[in-house]
Amino acid sequence: MLQYRTEALTDAELEREREVAGGLAxxxxxxxxxxxxxxxxxxxxxxxxxxxxxxxxxxxxxxLPGSFGIAVTPEGTxxxxxxxxxxxxxxxxxxxxxxxxxxxxxxxDFTLGAAYEGPPGMVHxxxxxxxxxxxCGEAAAAGQSPGMTATLSMSYRRPTPLGPLHxxxxxxxxxxxxxxVEGSLATGDGVTVECExxxxxxxxAVEPAAWPKHVHRFE
Amino acid sequence: MLQYRTEALTDAELEREREVAGGLAxxxxxxxxxxxxxxxxxxxxxxxxxxxxxxxxxxxxxxLPGSFGIAVTPEGTxxxxxxxxxxxxxxxxxxxxxxxxxxxxxxxDFTLGAAYEGPPGMVHxxxxxxxxxxxCGEAAAAGQSPGMTATLSMSYRRPTPLGPLHxxxxxxxxxxxxxxVEGSLATGDGVTVECExxxxxxxxAVEPAAWPKHVHRFE
Lengths: 219, 219
Description:
The structure is a homodimer. Chain A has helices at 11-37, 42-60, 125-142, and strands at 4-6, 70-72, 78-79, 99-101, 105-112, 148-156, 163-175, 178-187, 190-200. Chain A is α+β, with helices and mostly antiparallel strands.
């Protein structure tokens, strides 16, 4: 069920894609933020909308039939550029640039703006779950026990303000196809949210041996 | 700490804002999807990026200094248009059009595309947590026991495919400032994800009596 397509991109071409498609996504992120915050009059918004529609039509003239999925280069580098949290092509993603170590740890420093708001001035509680789910999954994969989320339990200690944040996760135990992971988000003033997750490699998924070499390196 | 600003918008002006700013956000959502899926050559992406940057600069010429927050009209209608899940101005939001009833129930039907992907062809597990957190919070508010998420426990039954989905949540118990809520997401083939949440009205939040009249109607 987890299908990967192989694409004949060299790592150098991949770097170029990061720069160009990643750059377009970054500009689109800025646009999303500006649409939330703009106070321009209706006439301007109507004009801007028309131009956005034209750009979308141009991009759609040549596009993948469905979602981006996960592609793997011949060199074994994974491109999950469409991913909601880490995808370089996905303007919804902050994107997290996750660092990992083979001991089963993952962490990232990032900044969340207006598009991630729940209560006024605060990060949406569900966004913190979204980011921690990804970090926990990457910690599990980095520790050579990749899996899908089976359970995720969030504990909200205090509100998480919009702005710079640090997130981290670590594997606390493994048992066969089961991996238990703990994670947290913090501001400079300390932890705001904690979580515990159980990750499973389900029977319908690929065998671990069949996973691409660098599947834990979500580049 | 939960601050609302009051804006002198009539409900008619608000309807117009929904149409115009909401329309721009919808077009921006389409752009986000197209950026993920486009296969146009680099030269085109570089040109499109430049035009996106120009539109962003235009929108930013007049903008709120920070995030959108929550505004309340003199008629008492809440505008949380910046919200990551339900915000009409927020291109990250699907957006969910949540329906509620005063018995403490909330539900929504919606479709998730390429921008919400985790595993190939599937909704990111964290996105399901994001949406259920909002639905549970709205169920609590609809049942006259609004609060902030204290805990949220997700149970993933099977992968959630991208496409049309139904989400719902209901209050199962209240005790003073504590409200317990259950929720789920489903495809036409049944439930994919379930959750249980505890919502609290913290002491630093406004008194319930001071909440705007229609705070449970996130329009």
